[in-house]
Amino acid sequence: MGKPLGPTGEFFRRRDEWRKHPMLGNQLRHATPGLGIALVAFGIYLVGEQVYNRVYAPSSSHHQSQSH
Predict the structure, then answer these.
(1) Is the pTM of this model over 0.90?
(2) Looking at the 3D structure of the chain, how many domains does it have?
């Protein structure tokens, strides 16, 4: 092992112990198991909708006023 930490090293070790607490490690990922897949699917949907709207957008000839 390395040399002893001394009082300063022990102080910082104790200050960083909260980072290893089981309640803080990866909890959001376990709480929302399908969120990543859902966000990817929603992003694909949004891109697909934009492509659809550009391809099948009504042309300007459909918006002309017609006299009876």
Answers:
(1) no
(2) 1
